[in-house]
Amino acid sequence: MNHFPERLKAARKMKGYSLQDLVNAMKEPVSKQALSKYEAGNMKPDSKVLRNLCNALGQPVDYFLRTSSIELGGIEFRKQSSLPEKEQTKIKYLTIEFLERYLELEEIMGIDNCLSNPIGNLKIKNEQDVERAAEKLREAWNWGYEPISNIVELLEEKGVKVFQLDAHDAFLGLSCKVNDQVSVIVMNNNEKISIVRKRFTILHELAHLLLDLSDATPLQKEHYCNVFAGAMLMPESIFKKAFGGFRKRIVWPEFILIKEEYGISIAAILYRAKILKLISMNYFKEMMMDYNRIGYQNGEPGQFLGSEQSKRFLQLVLRAYSEDLISSSKAAVLNGQKMFEFRDMLYLMDKK
């Protein structure tokens, strides 16, 4: 079977290119009609055109020759109507390409690392159920009650594939399943998005993967996932201890201290205090008005010094290479690099 047409289309979508954009990107352009015929499978490019396409699309020849069995299920761009459809398509195809490499690498190494869900049997009907689910998950995963410095790394260890990409700032994140088996979270690494917002988004998407929300309305699902994210960042007992019980008044520097220790935004702290009934609804509204008046919605004070990165994928690539399971050229392809980039990376790592 000829897989080239669908691979060409996928590579073009990953770049966010129209057919005309691809024509413009090629050093020796072919006609838009020819590209359309390539994608329809009505015509095949010669070796010269194929090299030209590889250069324009930033893909090795190997990419166009391999097949894909990746099907993303349950993928939704929630609350992101401002994200252009072209960007949504680009993110989808980039995610598929990343997962192709990741799952191929695990197959080469004989690794079966899928997420086990210790809270899947809990029916979620209210906020208290969500709190209990978060508590049970922290306990099952031995996360304890200390601040979590790197959520991404911990999730990767549990079998969640976390794909980080720089995308349009209207995109925060999404979750989906690959072939109804592999759990995936996609997060935006855009520097305009604060690390505390990224952390909250990751856990919000984790909730979509783990919680049984079958009885909830779409609005309730989003609300429960927000409650879950807050509860994972700061379990109820820890939050009450840090917040000091019911409060009639609290000053902004107190929020900043909590934010810097636990990696949770000031807005999320306020929201959690309201959920746990540690402030009145009227005071919550008053504080949110003040929050917006000060301009915190455009950038909060306080900085969380944790990191949201995982080295697992790179470690697997290097292990497979060092154990002669793959060649250096294959390692470069799996790591999404050109051959010289992979060798330069090895050289620089050896020098450290």
From TrEMBL:
Pfam families hit by this protein: HTH_19, Peptidase_M78
Domain of life according to the entry: Bacteria
Gene3D superfamilies tied to this protein: 1.10.10.2910, lambda repressor-like DNA-binding domains
Molecular function via GO: DNA binding
Residues covered by the HTH cro/C1-type domain: 8-64
Membership in a protein family: Belongs to the short-chain fatty acyl-CoA assimilation regulator (ScfR) family.
PANTHER family on file: ANTITOXIN HIGA1 (PTHR43236), BLL7220 PROTEIN (PTHR43236:SF1)
Stated name of the protein: XRE family transcriptional regulator
Lineage: Bacteria, Pseudomonadati, Bacteroidota, Chitinophagia, Chitinophagales
